[in-house]
């Protein structure tokens, strides 16, 4: 059990490296088949899963001061890949592995076994791949080679599979055209396109990512690539500063394409003072926060920190896009409601939005449910509670932000 008791926040902390960018960069470095240096990569569990995957596929990884060197290249023979609990790794590496003529099996652990994977089957078959899931879930069996061509894919559950196709199709012998229906998390697709450009790979898409053109016969360059700080993890620290004092988070790229940079819009709407200077963001409480409206459809990972923030604000806050939370590490919308009610929160779901009436949280014990973002949200809530919040299963923060509780403590959080 980890307890976070009422406390004021004041200090400076470095944002963790982005796991989303780290996983994408690991795949790009592997596909380059040369030597790529990744500077400041994430060491969270999901990122480590991605590095193990590329090693199994044939890459050589060497530690460097402040980073790693990835020497790309395939090894032959059937492969079994352990994606652990990383949904991005499974959906991204399925198309990448489809470049191989040999069979690859992608396995899952924990909550990833219950997350939907059926959306990858038909598009991959259209592109020349033999693909079989376990009734729409992991494990996934893939046999290529990926041919390229035309395919339609359902993007209503997110952009992770699209990211995998964007990374694999440039290496095919044919050009490809993708029709994408109801895509969610468009900023993450834009993140992928931005990374591909850095590696010398070109794709084109309309602003809505409804039609994507991917020229074939391309090659990845071998470059030096610095991983940006993670706005998703930093959002919890910034919410803590907004509600309970003052925090400066460094290693945040103000020009980042990461979707969760939008947290600043919500913090501003709630009445926090925000200052951005270079690669640092300072957020300060300037009195009672007010209820706010925010659409998190394109940035669903912001629900947990914003729910914790809203609990301490005056009035009602409305956060849209709850449907995006159904298939996370937990049913995250339901989990937030049930766990925050245990500690005195007035939180409910109406249609596709979360409604939160601000009140002083009494405190108590919540269950993280194996969900790293529920654990971190509980910690932020504990700062403003009457008696503190105990988080059962707190160690799951290692999935994205292993040092979260240490960092919270370093800026004044009463963590024990």
In the residues, how many domains can be counted? 2
How many individual helices?
A: 12
CATH superfamily of the largest domain: Enolpyruvate transferase domain
CATH architectural grouping of the largest domain: Alpha-beta prism
State the share of residues found in helices, binned by percent: 25-40%
Strand order of the largest sheet: 22-23-1-24
Straight-line N-to-C gap:
9 Å
**Residue share in β-strands:** 25-35%
Structural class: alpha/beta
CATH topology of the largest domain: UDP-n-acetylglucosamine1-carboxyvinyl-transferase, Chain
Task: Provide the CATH top-level class of the largest domain.
Answer: Alpha Beta
Low-confidence stretches: none
Please state the CA-atom Rg, rounded to the nearest Å: 21 Å
The count of DSSP E runs of length 2 or more, i.e. the number of strands, is: 24
Rough outline: globular
Mean pLDDT: 95
What does the largest sheet look like?
Answer: 4 strands, mixed
Features:
about 425 residues, UDP-n-acetylglucosamine1-carboxyvinyl-transferase, Chain, 2 domains, four-stranded mixed beta sheet
In short:
Helices cover 30% and strands 25% of the residues.
Architecture overview:
The protein is an alpha/beta fold and 416 residues long. The chain has 2 domains: 202 residues, Enolpyruvate transferase domain (UDP-n-acetylglucosamine1-carboxyvinyl-transferase, Chain, Alpha-beta prism), CATH 3.65.10.10; 196 residues, UDP-n-acetylglucosamine1-carboxyvinyl-transferase, Chain, CATH 3.65.10.10. Helix content is 30%, strand content 25%. The chain contains 12 helices and 24 strands. Strands 22-23-1-24 form a 4-stranded mixed β-sheet. Strand 16 and strand 17 form a beta hairpin. Helix 3 packs parallel to helix 5 and helix 7 runs parallel beside helix 11. The longest helix has 14 residues. The relative contact order is 0.15. The mean pLDDT is 95.
């Amino acid at each position: 059990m980890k307890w976070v008791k009422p406390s004021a926040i004041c200090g400076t902390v470095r944002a963790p490296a982005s796991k989303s960018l780290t996983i994408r960069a690991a795949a790009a470095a592997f596909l380059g088949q040369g030597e790529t240096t990744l500077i400041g990569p994430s060491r969270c569990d999901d990122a480590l899963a991605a590095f193990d995957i590329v090693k199994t596929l044939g890459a050589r990884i060497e530690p460097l001061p402040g980073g790693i060197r990835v020497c790309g290249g395939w090894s032959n023979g059937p492969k079994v890949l352990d994606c652990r609990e990383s949904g991005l790794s499974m959906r991204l590496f399925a198309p990448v592995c489809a470049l191989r003529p040999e069979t690859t099996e992608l396995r899952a652990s924990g909550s990833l076994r219950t997350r939907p994977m059926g959306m990858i089957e038909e598009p991959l078959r259209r592109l020349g791949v033999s693909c079989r899931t376990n009734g729409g879930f992991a494990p996934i069996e893939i046999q290529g080679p990926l041919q390229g061509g035309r395919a339609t894919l359902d993007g209503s559950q997110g952009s992770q599979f699209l990211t995998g196709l964007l990374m694999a199709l440039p290496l095919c012998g044919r050009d490809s055209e993708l029709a994408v229906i109801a895509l969610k998390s468009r900023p993450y697709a834009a993140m992928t396109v931005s990374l591909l450009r850095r590696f010398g790979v070109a794709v084109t898409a309309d602003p809505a990512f409804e039609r994507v053109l991917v020229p074939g016969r391309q090659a990845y360059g071998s470059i030096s690539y610095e991983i940006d700080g993670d706005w998703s993890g930093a959002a919890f620290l910034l919410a803590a500063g907004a509600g309970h004092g003052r925090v400066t988070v460094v290693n945040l790229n103000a020009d980042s394409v990461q979707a969760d940079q939008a947290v600043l819009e919500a913090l501003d709407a709630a009445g926090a003072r925000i200052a951005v200077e270079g690669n640092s963001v300072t957020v300060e409480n300037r009195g009672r926060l007010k209820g706010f409206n925010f659409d998190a459809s394109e940035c669903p990972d912001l629900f947990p920190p914003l729910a914790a923030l809203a609990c301490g604000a005056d009035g009602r806050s409305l956060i849209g896009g709850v449907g995006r939370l159904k298939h996370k590490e937990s049913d995250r919308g339901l989990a937030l409601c049930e766990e925050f009610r245990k500690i005195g929160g007035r939180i409910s779901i109406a249609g596709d939005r979360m409604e939160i009436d601000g009140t002083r949280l009494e405190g108590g014990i919540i269950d993280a449910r194996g969900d790293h973002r529920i654990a971190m949200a509980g910690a932020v809530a504990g700062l403003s509670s009457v008696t503190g919040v105990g988080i059962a299963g707190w160690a799951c923060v290692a999935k994205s932000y292993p040092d979260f509780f240490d960092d919270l403590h370093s800026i004044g959080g009463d963590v024990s």
